[in-house]
Amino acid sequence: MGKKDIELTSVYEISKLLGASLDINRTLKTTMKFLSVFLDLQRATIALIEDEELVIKAAHGLTKDEIKLGRYQIGEGVMGQVAKSGYPIVIPNVNDEPFFLNRTGARSNIKDQDIAFLCVPIKFKKEILGVLSVDRLFDTNVVSLDDDLRLLKIISALIAQSVKLHRQAQEEKLDLIAQRDALRIELMGKYRIDNVVGRSPQMQAVYEAVHRVSPSKATVLVMGESGTGKELIARAIHYMGPRANEQFIKLNCASIPEGLLETELFGHEKGAFTGAANLRKGRFELAHRGTIFLDEIADIAQSLQPKLLRVLQEREFERIGSEKTIKVDVRVIAATSKKLEALVQDGKFRDDLYYRLNVVPITLPPLRRRQEDIGDLIEFFINKFNLENSRRVSLSTESLKLMLEYHWPGNVRELENAIERLVIMTPEDVVLPDHLPLNIRTSLVQAVSSASGSRQPMPLVQIERSHIVEALGKTGWVYAKAAKMLGITPRQICYKVKKYGIRQDTQ
Ligand SMILES: Nc1ncnc2c1ncn2[C@@H]1O[C@H](COP(=O)(O)OP(=O)(O)OP(=O)(O)O)[C@@H](O)[C@H]1O
Ligand SMILES: [Mg+2]
Questions:
Q1: pLDDT higher than 90, residue 221
Q2: Which of 105, 19, 9, 23 is nearest to 61 (CA)?
Q3: What does the pLDDT read at residue 24?
Q4: 224 alpha carbon to ligand 2 midpoint, in Å?
Q5: Architecture of 3-170 per CATH?
Q6: Is the Cβ atom of 412 under 6 angstroms away from ligand 1?
Q7: Is the shortest distance between the CB of 357 and ligand 1 below 6 Å?
Q8: pLDDT, tens digit, for every residue of 114-134?
Q9: Which of 232, 233, 248, 376 to mutate to test the pocket of ligand 1 (most atoms within 8 A of CB)?
């Protein structure tokens, strides 16, 4: 190949290279390698301006350590001068040049050879991005430094373009990341509720619903199994809304006998019935301008349902023994752990009342459907009860694992109670599996034997553990026999008993 051909080919190949990859550092490095091979160079270096310093980004013919040393102030040394002025510098023989820095030390061992050094700026339009410099052994017969300079200028223009594009893309990416993070922070702030713990998508949906309904007066029906936090959420809706400074009146429909419930709800006049010695205001009246929380609404007697329906529709009622209609401004939040819809179908709950209550439904997921929240809740309650009891209790890894795997039929309430007990009762600061309530320690076994239809498939480790417990039980804890039964070695069973924290009273 003639000299011109080599030049053309190298420009062509390098332009292809620079356009091909998104990994700019790798591309620059390969470019330097190509250039060195094509032009038979000793060294080729790209240094870019970063934070007002010239930093070697890619090089061929320098070791990694040499590359690390390559940092220059703008204006310092030959490269620094090119970066400052934007004009190329050619040094026919670096050994004659007193102000040649040789910062990387790369040339110190070839002092007796003549080396030419060419350095061109990497410029995009008027902006100086860095410098491209090469070394070549000096041999006037073969080499024309002018030709080299011309070629380097072309290549540095190509490099400039690709560095600039990369930087723009990088800036856009950082911009997008910043925007995303800002949005996330905003969302997290928006959908957080004080003292309500849990980051699962199901709880996020609950927080979002709470944020949407709390400013309004809409009736809310909170549904969920026992202990899932229905009351907590009802209170949050009240305290996050415009009625926060007014009363939050709670009434548990299940705990009050049918005969008394009406009085509780609507109050009575003095002498309304035997024993009604004084006038008594009902909960609806007390909740005026505030919120009434009707807990366990499914348990309200059928005879009372029409009266409740009327208050919900008209916001008016009469005290027992009075003709006078009382008007109230009350927000209603109801809660139920029973399936109201099923009761409606069975004719036990009026459908018109159901629709009045079910304006905005919020369903709290059971803990076993949002296992990712268990860790956060454990931490929250441990901190809370440690603080209350001036203790510093923490869970051992094994205990934590058992708690995370437990299916918590009593949901958050069960978890909260379990941790309170542990914090108060544990003798040491670290809770070991032995300290855990029996049902948590043995839950895995129960999970196998009950195998209730609704539960999700059991993890393999749980199945394995339960088989081992069973085999040990059947063989009277003789490891050798149990191992034989399971087709494993006594050593293996011994190891697994330790691993799963199985104890003889695990039945
Ligand atoms: N997400 C949560 N974060 C923190 N604490 C919670 C959470 N959910 C529930 N709790 C706590 O668990 C306990 C039970 O919650 P709550 O009384 O609101 O449940 P519930 O659904 O009304 O239960 P029940 O049906 O038994 O009345 C409370 O002490 C509450 O503060
Ligand atoms: Mg409750």
A1: yes
A2: 105
A3: 86
A4: 10
A5: 2-Layer Sandwich (3.30)
A6: yes
A7: no
A8: 788 899 999 999 999 999 999
A9: 232
- Measured from the CB, is residue 232 less than 6 Å from ligand 1? yes
DSSP string, 157-211: HHHHHHHHHHHHHHHHHHHHHHHHHHHHHHHHHHT--TT----SHHHHHHHHHHH
The torsion angles phi and psi of 241, rounded to 5 degrees, stand at -105, 180
Which tens digits make up the pLDDT trace of 454-477? 445 556 677 778 788 888 887 888
- At 141, list the tokens: 């017969």
Alpha carbons 466 and 448: distance in angstroms, whole number: 7
Token pair in block for residue 477:
């804890």
Q: What is the third-level CATH fold of 451-507?
A: Arc Repressor Mutant, subunit A (1.10.10)
| Domain 202-365 shares a fold with domain 451-507 | no
Considering the domain 367-441 in this protein, what is its CATH number?
1.10.8.60
* Contact (Cβ atoms closer than 8 angstroms) between residue 224 and residue 366: yes
C-beta 338 within 6 A of ligand 1: no
* Ligand 1 pocket, residue 359 CB under 6 Å: no
Cβ burial 234-263 (10 Å sphere, 16+ → b, else e): bbbbbebbebeebbbbbbbbeebeeeebbb
Buried-state track 94-106, b at ≥16 Cβ within 10 A, e below 16: beeeeebeebbeb
Separation between Cα atoms, residue 473 and residue 482, nearest integer Å: 8
What value does the mean pLDDT of the chain take? 86
Kind plus residue range of the DSSP H or E element containing 317: strand 316-318
Mean pLDDT across 196-203: 91
Q: Which CATH architecture has domain 202-365?
A: 3-Layer(aba) Sandwich (3.40)
Q: Among all ligands shown, which has an atom nearest to the Cα of 229?
A: 1
38 in Cβ contact with 9 (< 8 Å)? yes
Write out pLDDT tens, residues 17-70.
887 777 888 889 999 998 888 888 888 999 999 988 999 998 998 877 777 777
Tell me, what DSSP letter sits at residue 366?
P
Tokens at residue 213, please?
A: 């309904």
Of ligand 1's atoms, which has the minimum distance to the CA of residue 203? 1
SS3 string of 59-81? Answer: EECCCHHHHHHCEEECCCHHHHH
Residue 331 has pLDDT above 60, yes or no: yes
Tokens 């895995």 correspond to: 444
Give the start-to-end residue ranges of the domains of the chain.
3-170, 202-365, 367-441, 451-507
CA-based nearest residue to 124, from 165, 85, 73: 165
Range with lowest mean pLDDT among 16-25, 304-313, 381-390, 437-446: 437-446
Task: Give me 242's structure tokens.
Answer: 């415009």
